[in-house]
UniProtKB/TrEMBL annotation:
Descriptive protein name: Lipoprotein
Keyword Signal attached: yes
Source superkingdom: Bacteria
Signal sequence, start to end: 1-22
Higher taxonomy: Bacteria, Pseudomonadati, Pseudomonadota, Gammaproteobacteria, Lysobacterales
Keyword annotations from UniProtKB, A to Z: Signal
Protein species of origin: Stenotrophomonas bentonitica
PROSITE patterns noted in UniProt: PROKAR_LIPOPROTEIN
Amino acid sequence: MKRLILVAACAFALAACSNPEAERQAQQAAAAAAKAQQEEKAEGVAKQYDMAVAAQDWERARIHGGSLLDQYKDTDVAARIEPGYAEVKAKAEAARETRRLQALWQYNQIPVGTKGIQSSAQIYSKERVDVDGSGAKPVQLVFRDHPEWKRHAYLVLQAGDFRCPKCQVKVTVDDGKPVSMAAWRPDTDEAIAMFITDQKALWNLARKAKVISIEFPVKAGGTRTAVFETGGLDTSRMPQWWK
């Protein structure tokens, strides 16, 4: 097909030297040949786009669709995919955000002697928090299932300390109202941790929420708030009872 178009274009070009009408036809033939080449190249990209959409690989579809609309925007193929491309872009952005949220969590499976496996899921606060005037540092939220110590949910500080032998924390889910939950600080200097008494309730909030904010009292005075983007929590990575 391409070869026939090119041959025809060349023939018109030779005749155009002595015939204005032939020159016009030669120009039309050359334009048609160029458009045919563009359409063929665009169709190749469109096939990759269609395959990605069929596989619901939205990020790959976004790349191919963007390339098609940018490099071959005047083709019939581009006109075909353009109406649905905005939805594909939105799905690609959502997939990228989901991956980002999932990557915020860390999961561990650690053997505990002959007693079994300790499972844990932990996430750092979105922003660092200054709890004692020494500078902002990460706050960690941990869910743990220990074969001997059983199930716990707790906050961990990198510096400073909690003002909390027994206290209340305020937990806010997304844009909801704060909910008070009982908490306690173990009598040990080995770790700066504060346990949330109703760990299962906190887990259920975390697995349903996009963001959880926890306001807690500190030894330096007053309270601080740590914000956790929990939307990427993979509940299958923890024991069945968490569900």
